[in-house]
Design goal:
The protein is α/β, with parallel strands linked by helices and 451 residues long. It contains 16 helices and 15 strands.
């Protein structure tokens, strides 16, 4: 006899300290154990089927169980399961993927690989510092991000993230990171202000912060073209044009974090195309491999490359790299995944499906507790409020979101509750009838909660 727990759920509680989870609550409620997936669906260990309304974590663009990705991984594993890219070594899939990404992303001239969005934003921060040191501007190091922005969880990227829980008790943010206001017009616009005025005000705020800090100390501005994990917030009209003007005026680099928006989510390969953003750095991940394997990439312009390259020559090396940088199996899966996205028209499918998806979302706008229904392409959210007129939040905040998420599970739907914001971001392979089914399940869940 031993006293080891034997159900999988009990073993999970006993041994697994989960990411982004309340550990004490987990001891009580245990895991939702997902065993397999197919298309837009996943199945739990009881065999119950769910529509994955968030594509896992905004990521499984080609859906679950795609045999071509399994085959690409298996073939690469058999041929060359691992090799690295340090000190002039390379392997075909990393080279081909770098070429492919540079070809797809307007204005970008080089690609460098990491394994997660957090690592990519962390390294982008290091590259920006290295770049300004190389240019003899050791003061120019601060990075301005936004409240409610999400850029990951490592020390630099967690600092860039503008969500209090990601800082609290982790001693973040680091002093080089500053945050400006969240660009959500519905929540933060002032009475009488138009959306365009709101964007002007936020650009002026950025300008004032750069001037107050000293332009010679501000290196970069980072933003998600459409805010994701902070609650799905498309930019207000004119926002990116005005923000870019301010950055250019002060020689401040622009980093577009396309970790969620990249590879078709907004109807173009990149949301930078949707919103006319010309960044110096672009960070991509998630739909790059449909998250079948961990992979992210930092893409940057020739201007950045020339300075980094000169400095590596001066020092003798660009002394950064991970064992898994450009991992052969992950990059092989990415190449096959990009083939699938292109062959099936998934990079632009949001133009066709987006109107239906957004119309269904707007159908909930008249609900007595929906403050705002918002989105673009195939990403969207409903923000629930206790009082529609005052936009007052529920007490405690997040209580409504948690109830809705639970009711959705009962109805066979997985969405993401970000406090009281319910986010939708289904796999891009979703069909029109499945979009309706997803929102029908959501409607039934909402009725359950109201009852
Ligand atoms: C915009 C954005 N950037 C960065 C990240 C961090 O990526 P990862 O979880 O792979 O570290 C995320 C994750 O959701 C994200 O949405």
């Amino acid at each position: 006899m031993n006293d080891r727990p034997n159900s999988l759920a009990a073993r999970d509680i006993a041994y697994y300290f989960h990411p982004a989870t309340n550990a004490r609550r987990h001891e009580k409620v245990g895991p939702m154990m997902i065993e397999r997936g197919e298309g837009i669906h996943v199945y739990d260990d009881q065999g119950k089927e769910y529509i994955e309304g968030l594509a896992g974590l905004w990521s499984v663009a080609v859906g679950f169980g795609e045999p071509r990705l399994v085959k690409a991984a298996a073939e690469q594993m058999a041929k060359l399961p691992f090799y690295h890219s340090f000190s002039h070594k390379s392997h075909p899939s990393a080279t081909k993927l770098a070429e492919r990404l540079v070809g797809m992303a307007p204005g970008m001239s080089k690609a460098h690989f990491t394994s997660s969005g957090s690592e990519a934003n962390d390294l982008t921060t290091k590259m920006i510092w290295y770049y300004n040191n190389a240019l003899g501007r050791p003061q120019k190091k601060k990075i301005i991000a936004r409240q409610k922005g999400y850029h990951g969880v490592t020390i630099a990227s967690g600092s860039l993230t503008g969500l209090p829980n990601f800082h609290r008790d982790f001693d973040l943010p680091i002093p080089q990171v500053k945050h400006v206001s969240c660009p959500n017009f519905w929540r933060f616009g002032k009475p009488g202000e138009t959306e365009e005025d709101f964007s002007t005000r936020l650009a002026e705020e950025l300008d004032a912060m750069i001037v107050a800090e000293g332009p010679e100390t501000v290196a970069a501005f980072i933003g998600e073209p459409v805010m994701g994990a902070g609650g799905v917030m498309p930019p207000p009209s004119g926002y990116w044009r005005k923000i870019q003007d301010v950055c250019r005026k002060h020689d401040v680099l622009i980093v577009a974090d396309e970790v969620i928006t990249g590879f078709g989510r907004t109807g173009n390969a990149f949301a930078c195309q949707t919103y006319d953003i010309a960044p110096d750095f672009m960070v991509v991940s998630k739909a790059l491999t449909s998250s079948y394997l961990p992979l992210s990439a930092i893409l940057f312009t020739d201007k950045i490359y020339q300075t980094l390259a000169d400095n590596s020559q001066k020092i003798g090396v660009f002394a950064h790299g991970f064992t898994a940088s450009g991992h052969p199996v992950a990059t092989a899966v990415a190449l096959e995944n990009l083939d699938i996205l292109e062959e099936r028209g998934l990079l632009t499918v949001a133009r066709e499906l987006g109107p239906q998806f957004q119309a269904r979302l707007q159908g909930f706008a008249s609900h007595p507790h929906v403050g705002e229904a918002r989105g673009v392409g195939m990403i969207g959210a409903l923000e629930f409020v206790a009082d529609k007129a005052t936009k007052a939040a529920f007490d405690p905040p997040g209580s409504m979101g948690a109830k809705i998420a639970e009711a959705c599970h009962e109805e066979g739907l997985i969405i993401r509750a970000i406090g009281d914001v319910i986010a939708f971001c289904p796999p891009l392979i979703i069909k029109p009838a499945e979009i309706d089914e997803m929102f029908n399940r959501f409607e039934r869940a909402l009725k359950r909660v109201s009852a």
